[in-house]
Amino acid sequence: MLDVAFAKPTLPKAGALALLIGEGEQASGLWAEADAATGGAVGRALAAARFTGKKGQTATILAPGAGLSRVIAVGIGKRADAKALAYEEAGGQAEAAASGDAVLAIVPGGGAADAAHAALGAVLRGYRFDRYRTKEKAQDKPKLAKVVVNHDEQAAARAAWSDLAAVAEGVFITRDLVSEPANVLNPAEFAKRCEGFEKYGLSVEVLGPKEMKKLGFGALLGVAQGSANEPRFVILEWKGRKGRGKSKPVAFVGKGVTFDTGGISIKPAGGMEEMKWDMGGAGTVAGLMVALAGRKAKVDAVGILGLVENMPSGTAQRPGDVVTSYSGQTIEVLNTDAEGRLVLADALWYCQEKFAPRFMVDLATLTGAIIVALGHEHAGLFSNNDELSQQLTAAGIETGEKVWRMPLGDAYDKMLKSDIADMKNIGGRPGGSITAAQFIQRFVNDTPWAHLDIAGTAWTHKDGAIIPKGASAFGVRLLDRLVANHFEE
Amino acid sequence: MLTVGTVARIEGADATVLPLAEDGAIPDNLRAAADAAGFRGGAGTSCEALTTEGRVVLVGLGAAGDVEGAGSHTASTLSGYARIALDARGLTAERAARFAAACCLRAWRPAAIRKAEDADAPRLAALDILLDGSAEFAGVWTPLEAAVRATLWARDMVTLPANVLTPASFATRLEDIAALGVKLKVLDTRDLRRKGFGALLAVGQGSANPPCLAVLRWRGTIEAPPVAFVGKGITFDTGGIGIKPANRMWEMRADMAGAAAAAGAIMALALRRSPAPAVAVLPLAENATGGASYRPGDVLRTLSGRTVEVVDTDAEGRLVLADAIHHAIARYKPQAVIDLATLTGAIVTALGHHRAGLFDNDAALAAHVAAAGASVGEDVWRMPIADAHREDINSDIADLRNCLTGRMLPDACHAAAFLREFAGDTPWAHLDIAGVESREEADGLMPKGATGFGVRLLDRLVAQRFEGPHRA
């Protein structure tokens, strides 16, 4: 993670300087100083680049003088309209433009909190998963190691940063987990890494197949039975309300299929490598819990991860098998590739029974249908609770992790009728994400609940302002914000 | 459509329907039968009994007092009787009328193109209504009847096979509606060429049945700009050079359901003499495969002047709509445009067969469309047009491309982003009705087959939004 420091505005003697500029703004402060120190080169270059400060616009001026290696101008749109996300995105763009320098000075303007968000953006964009690159030459690696955010209220900005640093740490944990290949990150290894989260103050409990069998997790175990890698069930708890009286926890549940071949209903080979990130929901829950603990959120929170590998083999479950879920409801498994919902069925039922939470949000890379429905900019939101849905939608707009509500209803639920069991695990192609959500809803027992289908958002195929290509950790910042906005004292 | 009328007493009916609330009092002479059948007035239940006055059928209204549900249940279970009576003395005139409307909607069956009717075919043809407040009945029935009649007209159109219903014969059949005092104007190929309908002409150019554009105009009495309906009218969609798989291709005869619904909505307004001015713009074409067909890679100049690169000739609906939406706005300056189209398979994957997709550039209009749909049982769900969807349809060599190629694409969103470009600043809503224009199984107000989805929604939208003093 980039080193982040805050300082009083001072024109650096070397390195890169990023100016976050609002639409229509005139040079002042460090911008004016830089312009003067470079003999007006900055101003001339920005005019030549037709830089106006429009949101998302960038202009980089190489070696303008005064010892600076480059000056980067990033537009944030109208300053009055720029919210935290605009500063994050501009910070991220600055980081990307400065990766060849060792130190980047950012001049964000705005308030102290905005300065902290600019730092967050730079840090998030600077993420890199390179542990398996053994031969990369030094000159090909990004050099940037430190960001210095220049702001008059440096102390307040630094204070705001401490919570955001914890969120960034959570995001990085998620991105690492999601980026790991499936031969490294199997359920046991995932659980082992979760045990390491005790250092953040989380309590960690791990159930193995024997315990799950005793509890009766028939749906989850059915998915797991084809793999040589045993399943795990991880319960993370954060108690942030110590001494503040009793209240029900908030709960997050993640689908953690460390690799999804589809099982006997095997997937086509093309693109199957992407299925290493079919544990994205669990990865997000893990990172979120670390973020909440790291910033000592004043909330009691539970994170539940159902970890399995879905493999075809002689011991794998077959299309047509009937399994008995932990809830007691029976499921006819007509397609072994609709396995995420089976894992969630037991995890959600366990969650509401054991913790009686205020709400449950589950996250899952669940259906291809949600990509056909919404594309990659919104996750699908399904919920039995309008208030929770509105809170999630608003938090999504604030963090840029947007959700779009999708419908539920009896007509869709009927599509799950089985001839021989309480339900079947698929409802057909039409409305495929909706029937998946209907299936899950049968295991939430009236607890306020939201399901986020993140199949289209857990991984990005091109660089975004604050998300480099690869694992996005979609949901960590969204749900952290949800908690911060509504569920802390 | 059933012949519906009020009667002073029940006479000559094959069966009398008596609607009953859940756990309501059952008449003494029917109690034994009801008990034997376990009938308690639940929704979707009925019980038939023979009495000294003839055959009586108790139909449950359920706890919610659902007269529409009871009406459709009646039509489906008593379809074997030619004439039935409704003993509506326990209902208000308004509820009796809604029962009758539901009964008519469910009793529709496609006009079969057969030499001889099957002996077991449904026979239900008449509904007599016995009502205390029969004087009020006509007042509530007339507007409902208009929407029902227009819906059934649209269903008949959607059912017609493509060798019967060509663009030209579609336009000819619109004379049914012109006869109600609606102005009909048809632009033929020559007119379209002169005016520059480049997209509509390209889609239609592969077919031996040339394209045309039909416009229906209902003037109403309110001095205001009209509301415009635009309906996709592809009388058959082979996919063109980007030909569709053969399996189930026959369903593509219904690819004009949007145009049928838009025309049907005008018909409903005319039948009930709505005060609101409205116009329907119907681009009619057959997307055929042939030596003269347009090709993937072609660049078209649309009526608006925008150029479009054709990536897939099977994404033709958005092309004909582009010209039609532009024409509707440029020519009629409407206060709002609502288009309907069986546009994408993606919307079926997204929402299934129970809701149409709603896209818009105006949240208030979208809310009114959704409310109108909910109030008539034609449910819609609002869907997003994200920035990324708009960026995706940029073309390297033209202003826009009509779609993307590849797997797992949000094509319904792409199509909506495409259409939005042609709506400009006019409040616009787009209903992707693929998946709801026909039903494989009867359900509620919709028998198996064409649904006429959209007619009642638009009729209700006009009534709720464009007729009163609050109108937009």
Keywords:
heterodimer, A: alpha/beta, eight-stranded mixed sheet, six-stranded mixed sheet, 19 strands, B: 472 residues, alpha/beta, 20 strands
Question: Could you describe the 3D structure shown?
Answer:
The complex is a heterodimer of chains A (489) and B (472). With 489 residues, chain A is an alpha/beta fold. Helices cover 35% and strands 22% of the residues of chain A. Chain A contains 15 helices and 19 strands. Chain A has helices at 29-37, 41-48, 84-97, 112-125, 154-179, 187-195, 209-215, 218-224, 280-294, 340-355, 369-374, 386-399, 410-413, 432-441, 476-486; strands spanning 3-7, 15-21, 58-65, 68-75, 103-107, 146-150, 203-207, 232-239, 250-260, 300-310, 321-324, 330-333, 359-364, 378-383, 402-405, 423-424, 449-453, 459-460, 470-471. In chain A, the strands form four sheets. An eight-stranded mixed sheet of chain A has the order 7-8-10-9-13-17-14-15, with helices on both faces. In chain A, strand 11 (321-324) and strand 12 (330-333) form a beta hairpin. In chain A, helix 4 runs parallel beside helix 5, helix 5 (154-179) runs antiparallel to helix 9 (280-294) and helix 8 (218-224) runs antiparallel to helix 10 (340-355). Chain A is elongated and about 80 Å long. The model of chain A has no long low-confidence stretch (mean pLDDT 97). With 472 residues, chain B is α/β, with parallel strands linked by helices. Chain B has two domains: 3-135, 3-Layer(aba) Sandwich (Leucine Aminopeptidase, subunit E, domain 1); 145-466, Aminopeptidase (3-Layer(aba) Sandwich), CATH 3.40.630.10. Helices cover 36% and strands 21% of the residues of chain B. Chain B is built from 15 helices and 20 strands. Chain B has helices at 28-37, 67-77, 93-107, 134-159, 167-173, 175-178, 189-195, 198-204, 257-271, 317-332, 345-351, 363-376, 387-392, 411-423, 455-466; strands at 3-7, 15-21, 46-51, 54-62, 83-87, 126-130, 183-187, 212-218, 227-231, 233-237, 278-287, 299-301, 307-309, 336-341, 356-360, 380-382, 400-401, 428-432, 438-439, 449-450. In chain B, the strands form four sheets. In chain B, strands 7, 8, 9, 10, 11, 14, 15, 16 and 18 form a nine-stranded mixed sheet that branches. In chain B, strands 1-6-5-2-4-3 form a six-stranded mixed sheet, sandwiched between helices. Chain B has a three-stranded mixed sheet with strand order 12-13-17. In chain B, helix 3 (93-107) packs parallel to helix 4 (134-159) and helix 9 (257-271) packs across helix 15 (455-466). The longest helix of chain B is centred in the first third of the chain and has 26 residues, at 134-159. The radius of gyration of chain B is 23 Å and the shape is elongated. The mean pLDDT of chain B is 96. Classes of the chains: A alpha/beta (489), B alpha/beta (472).
